[in-house]
Amino acid sequence: MAYKKSNFTKEFYQPQEVAGLLGVTSRTVANYCDSGLMEEERTAGNRRRIPRESLLKYLEHKGLLIVDSNKRRDVVYARVSTHAQATRGDLDRQVQEVLAYAAYHSPVDIDVIKEIGSGLNDNRKQFSSLLKAVLNKEISRIFVNYKDRLTRFGFKYIELVCAHAGTEIVVVSSETKVKSVQDELAEDLCAIIHSFSGKLYGMRGKDKSKALDKVESIRVIRDDG
Question: What is the mean pLDDT of the chain?
Answer without folding.
Answer: 81
